[in-house]
Design goal:
3 copies of one chain form a homotrimer. By secondary structure, chain A is of the alpha/beta class. Chain A is built from 13 helices and 20 strands. The longest helix of chain A is centred in the last third of the chain and has 20 residues, at 346-365. Chain A is 31% helix and 22% strand. Chain A has an 8-stranded mixed beta sheet with strand order 1-10-12-11-13-16-14-15, with helices on both faces. In chain A, strands 5-4-9-6 form a 4-stranded antiparallel beta sheet. In chain A, strands 17, 18, 19 and 20 form a 4-stranded antiparallel beta sheet that branches. Chain A has helices at 5-19, 24-35, 45-55, 118-122, 152-157, 203-220, 238-246, 280-290, 308-311, 346-365, 397-408, 415-422, 426-438; strands at 61-66, 70-71, 74-75, 79-88, 94-97, 112-117, 125-126, 148-149, 162-172, 175-183, 190-196, 228-234, 254-260, 270-272, 297-299, 320-324, 367-371, 410-414, 442-443, 456-457. Chains in contact: A-B, A-C, B-C. Chains A and B meet through helix 11 of A and helix 7 of B.
Chain lengths: 459, 459, 459
Amino acid sequence: MSLGPNDSMELQRDFGEQLITRDVGEAIFALAARIFPICRSITGNGVRQTLREIRSQLALEVHEVPTGTEVFDWTIPREWNIRDAYIKDSAGNKVVDFAQSNLHVMSYSVPVGTRISLAELKKHVHTLPEQPDLIPYRTSYYAEDWAFCMAHRQLEDLREETYEVVIDSSLEDGYLTYGEYLHKGQTDEEFLISAHVCHPSLANDNCSGVALLTHLARRMVGLPTRYSYRFLFVPGTIGAIAWLAHNEENSRRIKHGLVVSMVGDGGGPTYKKSRRGEAPIDRAMSHILRHSRLRSVIEEFSPYGYDERQYCSPGFNLPVGLFQRSKYGTISQYHTSADDLSFITPEHLLESYNLIVKTIDVIESDAAYCNTIPKCEPQLGKRGLYRRIGGKRDIATENMAMLWVLNLSDGTQSLLDIADRSDLPFEVIRRAAQLLQTHGLLTSSPLAPGGAREPRAVP
Amino acid sequence: MSLGPNDSMELQRDFGEQLITRDVGEAIFALAARIFPICRSITGNGVRQTLREIRSQLALEVHEVPTGTEVFDWTIPREWNIRDAYIKDSAGNKVVDFAQSNLHVMSYSVPVGTRISLAELKKHVHTLPEQPDLIPYRTSYYAEDWAFCMAHRQLEDLREETYEVVIDSSLEDGYLTYGEYLHKGQTDEEFLISAHVCHPSLANDNCSGVALLTHLARRMVGLPTRYSYRFLFVPGTIGAIAWLAHNEENSRRIKHGLVVSMVGDGGGPTYKKSRRGEAPIDRAMSHILRHSRLRSVIEEFSPYGYDERQYCSPGFNLPVGLFQRSKYGTISQYHTSADDLSFITPEHLLESYNLIVKTIDVIESDAAYCNTIPKCEPQLGKRGLYRRIGGKRDIATENMAMLWVLNLSDGTQSLLDIADRSDLPFEVIRRAAQLLQTHGLLTSSPLAPGGAREPRAVP
Amino acid sequence: MSLGPNDSMELQRDFGEQLITRDVGEAIFALAARIFPICRSITGNGVRQTLREIRSQLALEVHEVPTGTEVFDWTIPREWNIRDAYIKDSAGNKVVDFAQSNLHVMSYSVPVGTRISLAELKKHVHTLPEQPDLIPYRTSYYAEDWAFCMAHRQLEDLREETYEVVIDSSLEDGYLTYGEYLHKGQTDEEFLISAHVCHPSLANDNCSGVALLTHLARRMVGLPTRYSYRFLFVPGTIGAIAWLAHNEENSRRIKHGLVVSMVGDGGGPTYKKSRRGEAPIDRAMSHILRHSRLRSVIEEFSPYGYDERQYCSPGFNLPVGLFQRSKYGTISQYHTSADDLSFITPEHLLESYNLIVKTIDVIESDAAYCNTIPKCEPQLGKRGLYRRIGGKRDIATENMAMLWVLNLSDGTQSLLDIADRSDLPFEVIRRAAQLLQTHGLLTSSPLAPGGAREPRAVP
């Protein structure tokens, strides 16, 4: 099935209208709140339960990769599960209780059940002395160990005595679990959207991203798109590596991609470019953020962060960037118990959702066109396209957008190129292009003016 | 006839000397003052009368294009002429009189002769409420209408009564008129200089440009130049389009070009680059402005402005920039009765003239040369070219210019390249090149050192 | 003998360790102090004596080029020597005495022995009225003349009387003398390091450079290097020209080069790029200076300065930059008697030495490598390469360096490229690369992983 320029234009106009609705922010927040209490790690029942919640909204495909499977340089670890954990003082009071916060146990802690002195206990406790009221989030996936995490004040209150320490966890052969959802578009070329699903009760990092992706995918159901959209809900690092290992051939279809995390707070937005630096996704998202009126930050690629580390490894070098609000590691709530549901809001989730949808919208509809009357300006007035300007000091942005599209549409410059050069929003440029196309002033191909079937995709 | 490098150099030295004289500013001002009172529009006798004034100084060729002629997407409109217009109150007093200012009538107003209420009249009146003492300039070329323009205070003083409204104009088949002057140079390659000639009594916009071009062309008579210079005095938009439509083939000869308007005020100077952005004209004028000590502004191309819109349409994409003092639309006098002869001065006209001449000078003489002693520095001292520097802390600019020319003249870098890289004025670099050439240290071609005929033009 | 990547790495690690020692600054200062009193010029016994001092530390090859030899556009001048010079007042007191400072006589002054009035004398006196206590340094190599240089106060104290003026100099056929030392590396490709040796008692300009090069060459003896290092001790301009004229063919081997002068003061450091602008030496030295914590200044090439003028003349266009502390001509001591031994310090000489050694180190060891596990990240943890980061907010620079090297090592980007893109010091990047190579994660060639013989040199 071919996709003509008019279709494409119509399609896109519908795209934003169908996807962007006021209530999306509330819906994302509600799902984030549902999955917040679950104790997730890189393997185990927490991930399964989370994927079940997503599945209640979206026809998610769930994959399980057995312990011991080799995925490039890595091996799927044993599966970790935890039922309970606590520290009791000599009076039998639980001074630390996993039931109150799953951050209290370092992820992948081996089982333990013993009585030890405070001094001994302290060797297995993580706190944040500079943020004495917060519980830190800690992991030890590949070094066998156990530890409790607690507020520093809590630790300081502990007296010299013998404590009963119990972690009722298991570390056994099992599976790594991840979820995948494919929205089929008109081509096999893919847009990858990936969120890590391995952190426990941290609302922003990454209940927010998981919930946003779920609702984005859910709303795309039935929507015709140029690209196919692959949504991944994977445990960080090992999950992305497992997916790439099992989809090496298919990964070549990925033309654009985003890793999405921490999208519910009011910071940023922050976009870290892909390793390529000037990929269409980099240009599209930079454009949308620049015109967003928010205090956006565009960063160059660096090899530290989330799963873009794997997607952008030199053997794949996929055009995948990272979208966040506040950048990881730059805010006091990061990886602490302060990253709870009060830290994210429906409004910020909606904002983040809209920025992602607008970026997808650019990627979907960017193409180069040709002015059908390239010699001198077409007379816009006689077509009713030009507001009379004799008496106006300010030429309307719409008029300028038409002039820009006409002037630069020589088949080599795409709408995004034109939007960037004119410093006008993509949607204004596209609207002008649509109007001009309706009036026969713009065609998708210099070879078949007026009757072309395929917009010239910009690589 | 071939143009050797020495000739070329001599030529250029004479160029500036012959063209730049103190009294040019006064002469330009005098012509601007002569044509200021004429009521011009895009067609009609006002343009003819203006061209006659120019013709009294320059052997201008005048062209007339009949109404109805198709020029690309446009059609030459009916010819508009006006004899008189006024608004009389019930006492018979002319409260608005075309004879006092031709701005009082919206250009291309259809004839009218009627008695109407104030309320009815107001529908046909343009004012500037924020500049209540000024008459605005308004047009309605392609939508049949009529209107008066007046000072807002004037409008506020009108009482509720019946007014007699007369516009004694005609809108009939006729011609579009434009003027053209070609200064023949040693090659057929052309430098286009274009001014719009369609505005009524607006001194800066564009009596100034029309008068400047006339005197520039007049002073070039008999002067040998590398390029041919084509001066166009055309009604804005439709005039430029008509010229391009009738000269499509010839337009390929245009290697450089300038649209000139609003050159008599003390603002800027402002240069808007051609669509190409890095054409020789863009680099030359930017260089001259950067070294001018004025508060010059260099702007990137945009598709709104004067006739560069047509010359830079994608089907032509000619290397034509826009030279102005204050940028259109940025000053309070723009398109109002305050743009009168008191707004322009001989001094500023002279300054503008000189900047254009210097830019032409760069275009005329820029070329790449070869150092004839490229291995190590030539010994300048034994040729008397180097001032003794043993005791001087500051090396004279002249010495530096010679060193720069010698160091970079490997046949790939032109004098303008060298001027830009060294951040020295082009004229200093050229003078150094002339001196070095005189001493046999610089040649125009690596193939025929010392005996070359053609300077290597820089594209 | 081939140079494998491991060898290369080892080599470089040793390089810095062997060359950089605390006492180098003192040693350089001591040699500068020994040669400071000698009256040097572009020819004559002063140069010979200076080269003898160097020879006492280094197996220098000394060349003599006869007067009258043509070297490109220049001719070797007559040899100048001076034994004594003074001005005596009528009472027989020496009011100016060459024995007190060899700056008192303009270099290349012809012999004179006469009695003249103060007015007559003044025509042959150079002073610095704005620095009245300092003696200026002056030369007149190619115009026969004589002059005294003195403090302005000294001149003002002279009374109107007759003075006996004696310059016991000679200007006769002889030789231009220069020194050359070649450190042979594993290839014939050369790194040129050049210092001018023609200035009299000016400590910074250039006893400092001459002494630094001597000790650098001395410490490289026996050290295996990739490049061969050619040290030149040449009279300014004419010496460099003579060397180039006699080594035109060999000069093609020069892949990198530095002119070194004024390296003992506390200013800068200043690096002026080669004419090429982006040669490896330009990038390497810019990198080292940027990471030096000193107030370094990187300047674009200009054709005025020291012997880089000759090396970078268009017929050679060698990749040779200029390294200094304070830039010539920018400090009050420049070319005056204030440029004495108190103006330079062992600390600054050591600093300069270290910067040059580190730059050489970059040039020696820069190469592009390949990540042997390019698909997804290698699991650094299981190799003990990754510090546990679960609980650390700041990822150690070392970890980041490993990630950068792994991510960018696709065979196209060298360690210096990676250092610049990551904004990490080259030595940190190289250390990470060494560590990764030791663990088999990095190889020098994609064609022969793990077993390659030749690092891919970056051009």
